[in-house]
Write a structure and sequence with these properties.
This protein is mainly α. The protein has three helices and no strands. 0% of the residues are buried.
């Protein structure tokens, strides 16, 4: 899409401006100062550069999607299918892991950092 805009609009605009400037100069109808020509030319080049940058960014995102995002989505989908059949095992592993982590922290936490949770919530 960016390439289409670049080729059909920006390059055509560049050609139109050039032909108008040449015709105006031949017929002495419109006198463009060198500064005006310079401004128009620079603006055209800046527009073209912006669209080329957009095209490069779009290409980068497309490649990123093809090479990484779609593969990650496929892996996530496969993981979901695997976890559905292993749901009980997964839940047990998470609970065991959480209990083991809590136990490790309780045993190895320096007393100066330890916080005791009170059952009495009114404090």
């Amino acid at each position: 899409m960016v390439r289409l805009v670049l080729q059909n609009k920006v390059k055509r605009f560049d050609g139109d401006v050039s032909s108008v400037a040449i015709d105006a100069n031949k017929k002495q109808l419109l006198r463009l100062k060198d500064m005006d020509i310079e401004i128009i030319y620079r603006s055209t080049l800046q527009i073209e550069a912006c669209f080329e940058l957009f095209q490069t960014i779009a290409r980068m995102y497309y490649q990123m999607h093809i090479n990484h995002v779609s593969k990650g989505m496929d892996s996530t989908e496969m993981l979901e299918k695997t976890l559905v059949t292993m749901a009980q095992t997964f839940v047990a592993a998470v609970k065991t892991g959480a209990a083991a982590a809590t136990e490790h922290v309780e045993e190895n936490m320096p007393q100066s950092l330890a916080i005791r949770v009170s059952e009495d919530l009114s404090i």
